[in-house]
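User: Hi! Is it possible to get a structure for several chains at once, not just one? Here's what I have:
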Amino acid sequence: MTAVVHLGHSTTLPERLKDAAWIAFVALILGIPMIGLTTVDAGGKLVVQTRWALLGYFIAASFCGRLVLRYVLDALQRRRQAQRTPAATAERRGRFSVLTLLGWLLLGVAIALPIAFSDNRYVVDTATTVLIYVMLGWGLNVVVGLAGLLDLGYVAFYAVGAYTYALLSTQFGWSFWQALPVAGGMAALFGVILGWPTLRLRGDYLAIVTLGFGEIIRIILVNWTELSGGPNGIASIPRPTFFGLPFKPPVDEGPMTFAQYFGIEFVPAHRLIFLYYLILVLALLTNLFVSRLRKLPIGRAWEAVREDEIACKALGMNVTNVKLSAFAIGAMLGGFAGVFFAARQGFISPESFVFTESAIILAIVVLGGMGSQLGVVLASLVLVLLPEIGRDFAEYRMLLFGLAMILIMIWKPGGLLAHREPTLRAPERSP
Amino acid sequence: MTAKTGNILQIDALTMRFGGLTAIDDLSFTAPAKAVTSIIGPNGAGKTTLFNCITGFYKPTTGAVRLFHPVRGETPLETLPSYRVARDAQVVRTFQNIRLFPKMTVLENLIVAQHNPLQNASVFSLAGLFKLAGYRRAETLALEKAMHWLTRLGLTEFADTAAGALPYGTQRRIEIARALCVDPVLLCLDEPAAGLNPRESAALNDLLIHLARDEDIAVLLIEHDMSVVMKVSDHIVVLNYGRKIAEGTPTEVQNDPQVIKAYLGEEEAAA
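Assistant: Yes, the chains can be modeled jointly so their relative placement is included. Here is the combined structure:
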C-alpha cells in the first residue's frame, strides 16, 4: 500500500511498471462497480448491463497515466534537488524577474480581454467572477497569508459589504460610489467585532470561531426578514453608473444614458465591460494597497505575529492592535468586493454567502502560496476556470476539481508561488 | 524601600506559584546599573520563571519587581503587560529556545524590533502609504540602527538571509542584536552562550562587558557556561529550588559552601 503513497523513490523501469500495475489493479477494483456495471432503463425497469470494454480502456489509461505521472514527478524531484545547491541562488533571482514579467503579462491580458471578447458575454462574465475572487483572495491574504490568522468565515464580511450597499441604495438611494467607502467601513467594523473576542485564540480554535461567525451572519440575514428580506434577499439593486450615466436602453425624456452621451448605439455588453473594468480597477487598487502595507511597519508586524507572537510581545509590540488591524483591513477589502458583487448581480440573498464561498477563498490563498499576491491570481484562475471547463464533464466536474487540487498540493506543497520576497534589503555597504 | 543609587532593578519578596508548585520562593535581590548581573542555579531553579516575571509574561503571585529607569524613574514592572515592559520600560529579553521570525530576513527581524517608533512615524500607515518625508527619515534611521548592531555582532553578511536558515549560534547573536534594536535600559539574556563556539563565546563576553560599562545597558544574564559567568559578571545571584542561596561577586559565590553543595551535592551523597 505504501508504494502508492511514496512518490520519490523508485527509478528503474521494472519498479515503475510494478507501480503502474498496482495502480491499474486499484483502478480495476474501483472500476468494476463504477464503470463495468451500469443500469439501463428498459421499458420501465432497470436492467444491469456490463461495459467491460470501457473498463478495459479505463484501466489501460490508469496504467499509462501512472507511468507518465511517475516520470514527471521524478523529473520534478530531480530538478528540485538540483535547485537546492548554492549555485541555484543566482538562477532563482532570475526566476523572480520571470514572475514580475508574468504579473505584467497577466495585467496586459486582463486589460485587453474585454476588447478581444467584446461580443462574448460568457468570457467577460467569467473573467469578472475571476477578478472578484482575486480581490477577495487579496483581502483574505492579509488575514491568513500575512498575519497567519486562519479565518474560515471571511464570506461574512463579503456579505456585510453586499448588504450594506443593497440597503443603502434601495432604501436611501445612495449611489455605488457613495456607498462603497461606507460599506467598506462597515465591514471593517465587523472585522473588529469578530477580532475582539477571538484575539486570544490561535490556529484551530480561531478557525472554529470564525467559521461560527460566518454562519451567524448568514443566519441573521436569513431570519431578520425586516432588514434583509430573509431568504428572498434584496432585489433590484441599482447598477453602478459611469459617472452618473446609466447603462440602459435610451428612453425619451429619461435621464441621459451612457450610449446617448457618447453617441453610440446601445449594446447590453457595454455594462458588462464596464463592470469588468470596474472590478479590475478595484482589484488593482487592492493589490497596490496591500503590497504597500506589507512594506510598512504594520505589514511587517503582521508577518512577525504570524511567525512568533511571543517574540513580538517581548519586542514591545501591541499584538492586540496588530491582529485587529489585520482583521479590519482584510474585512474592509472583503466588504468592497461585496459592494461590487451586489451591484453586479442586482440581487443578493443569503444563499450567495454560504460556507463554501469562504472555503473557496481560503483555498485560493492557500493554493496560491500564503502571502503571495501573484499566487492568488493564479489560484483564482485555476479554481474558477476549472469548474467552468469542467462543465462538459457534467457530474465528474467536482471530481476533476478535487483531483486538480490534490495534484497541485503534491507538486507544490507550499502553494503555487511559495517564495517570499523580503520587504527591504540591506543598503550597499561602502567599501 | 527606597531606590539605592546605582541600582537598575530591585526584586522584593517575589513569589511565583503554579498550583502547588512554588517556582520562586520569597526572592529578593538588586541588580546594579552599568553592570552584568548573572542568575545561576541548577536546572529547574526558577531562573527562566524569574525572567518571565520581570518581563511581564507571568504575573507574580506576590512581591514586586521595581525598575529604576533613567528617565521614567521607578517603574513597577509586575503591573505592566509584557509588551509595555519592552515598549515603555525598555526591558527587553531573549529566549532560551530562540524566538526569531524564521521566514523573515535578519534585517527584517531587526526592523520589526523598531516597530513602535516606525509605526508612530507612519501615522496609522498613512504617512507610510504616501511615503512622506517624515516616515522616510524614520525608516532610514531604523535601517541605520539595524545595520549598526549587525556590524557590531558581525552579522552584516547575513542581513538579507532568512533568519530561520542560519546556524544556531548565529541565530543566538541575531536575537541579541534584535533585542538591542529596542534600545533597552535592561537587557535580559536567557542562556545566550548556549550553542556558541569558544570564539563566538569570547566575543559575546566582550560585547556584554562593553554594553554594561560603555553603553549603559545593564545586563541580566542566565547562563550555565561558568566560563562566561565568571568572566563577565559583576554580581551573581544563585538560585536553587526557587530560593536565593547565595549572592555576591564571582569570587564570593565560587567559595560559598551552599553553592558548592547545590552544584556538587552533599558530602554523604558524593561518598
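The CA atoms of residues 2 and 330 of chain A lie 42 Å apart. Chain A has 17 helices and two strands.

User: Great, thank you!
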